[in-house]
């Protein structure tokens, strides 16, 4: 049964803990990073570093902790160099404002990106044989990204 986070009733233009299911991690590609004026829930305005993504995802208001993590992953403290960098976001509990709250964090190491399995991939024929022996799509996708078209060719037993 899916549960509903209370923050979904107070939508935000920026990514937050409510935008993640339990244990979910999001691998996203930075499209741009820059200074933007952000309105708080009391109507005040503040200049913040905002990171926008190539994927269809809300932007991230980037605090110092997340900025340092992106710096490590991108290999540069210069925000203009961050475009094209893949980062991994997750939710954790942190101490803030005298309370324990959920916060979105950037993993300090590059995300592990699975290779795409195509008919030209060296392991393709081995995967076809493994599926014929009973491997499931979930088992294959633990190691590879597989499109529906390629999966159909694997299931159909098409060799490269």
Number of DSSP helices? 4
Q: Mean of the pLDDT scores?
A: 92
State which percent range the strand residues make up: 25-35%
Strand order of the largest sheet: 3-2-1-4-5
Q: Per the principal axes of the C-alpha atoms, what is the gross shape?
A: elongated
Give the tally of β-strands: 5
**What's the domain count?**
2
Sheet having the most strands = 5 strands, antiparallel
What is the radius of gyration computed over CA atoms, rounded to a whole number of angstroms?
20 Å
Helix content: 10-25%
**What pattern of helices and strands is seen along the backbone?**
EEEHEEHHH
Low-confidence spans: pLDDT under 50, at least 5 residues? none
Structural class based on helices, strands and sheet pairing: alpha+beta
Instruction: Compute the separation of the termini in Å.
Output: 41 Å
Could you describe the 3D structure shown?
- With 160 residues, the protein is of the alpha+beta class.
- The protein has two domains: 6-106, no CATH class; 114-160, no CATH class.
- The chain contains four helices and five strands, in the order βββαββααα.
- It has helices spanning 64-74, 124-132, 137-141, 148-155, and strands spanning 26-39, 45-53, 60-61, 86-96, 99-106.
- Strands 3-2-1-4-5 form a five-stranded antiparallel beta sheet, covered by helices on one side.
- Strand 1 and strand 2 form a beta hairpin.
- The termini are far apart.
- 12% of the residues are buried.
- The model has no long low-confidence stretch (mean pLDDT 92).
């Amino acid at each position: 049964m899916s549960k509903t986070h209370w923050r979904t009733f107070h939508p935000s233009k920026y990514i937050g803990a409510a935008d993640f299911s339990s244990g979910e991690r999001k691998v996203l590609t930075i499209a741009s990073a820059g200074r933007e004026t952000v309105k708080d829930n009391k109507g005040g305005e503040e200049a913040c570093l905002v990171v926008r993504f190539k994927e269809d995802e809300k932007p991230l208001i980037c605090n110092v902790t997340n900025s340092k993590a992106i710096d490590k992953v991108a290999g540069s403290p210069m925000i203009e160099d961050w475009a094209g960098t893949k980062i991994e976001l997750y939710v954790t509990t942190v101490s803030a404002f005298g309370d324990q709250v959920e916060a979105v964090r950037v993993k300090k190491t590059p995300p592990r990106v699975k290779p795409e399995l195509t008919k030209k991939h060296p392991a393709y024929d081995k995967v076809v044989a493994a599926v014929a022996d009973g491997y499931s799509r979930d088992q294959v996708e633990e190691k590879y990204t597989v499109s529906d078209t390629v999966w159909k060719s694997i299931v159909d037993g098409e060799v490269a």
